[in-house]
Design brief:
The structure is a single chain. This protein has helices at residues 2-17, 22-36, 42-54, 59-98, 106-133, 138-156, 163-190. It has seven helices and no strands. Helix 1 (2-17) runs antiparallel to helix 2. Helix content is 83%, strand content 0%. With 191 residues, it is mainly α.
């Protein structure tokens, strides 16, 4: 029962004190679940992030659910999922109940401008950490650089091209390269 409460509280803290969405939460999930608690490894977090990105639902919720399942089974996954969902839900519910024109308050509007910058920095921090720790083969670097350049060009030129399509293309290319590498190893082993 202790672990269920701990899962709930850790993910509630992450949810309550992280602005910027799921990607910003990844840095906090890594700090709490990988570095402090050692519930999952960094490689598992990277795998979870990739899988959570390609499955339906918010990335942070998928990461919390997996971590909770690994640590506490089905009840652990429910506890961590509730922990990451409830604080945000309650805050948004209270804001919608009491403040119809919430962002019209100058101080609130300015605070959210600062929060946007902070969220961007958290996302950048998580990205840099993941890039530093990923397995760095030539092909993975080429795919990463080409994807980044493509995303920048799409945004700068305001092209109507979905970032999801770009991720799918990068995923297909990675899969093809992986299959070719396996085939090359098989051919090399049989010779």
């Amino acid at each position: 029962m202790n672990i269920l409460l701990e899962l709930f509280l850790i993910f509630a803290k992450i949810s309550l004190f992280t602005f910027g969405g799921g990607y910003a939460m990844i840095a906090m999930i890594e700090h709490n679940c990988v570095e402090k608690k050692k519930w999952i490894t960094h490689d598992e977090l990277m795998d979870i992030t990739v899988i959570a990105e390609s499955t339906p639902g918010p990335i942070a919720i998928n990461c919390a659910t997996y971590t909770g399942y690994k640590v506490g089974g089905l009840i652990g996954s429910i506890s961590s999922t509730l922990g990451i969902v409830l604080p945000s839900f309650i805050v948004i519910y209270l804001i919608s109940m009491f403040l119809d024109n919430f962002l019209e308050f100058t101080i609130i509007s300015n605070a959210f401008k600062g929060i946007k910058i902070g969220g961007g920095i958290l996302i950048l921090s998580a990205s840099i950490t993941m890039i530093r720790k990923m397995k760095k083969g030539i092909m993975s670097r080429v795919i990463m650089i080409c994807s980044c350049i493509s995303m920048l060009c799409i945004n700068i030129l305001a092209l109507d091209f979905s970032s999801i399509s770009l991720m799918l293309i990068a995923g297909v290319i990675s899969l093809v390269v992986y299959i070719l590498q396996i085939e090359m190893v098989k051919v090399g082993v049989t010779k």
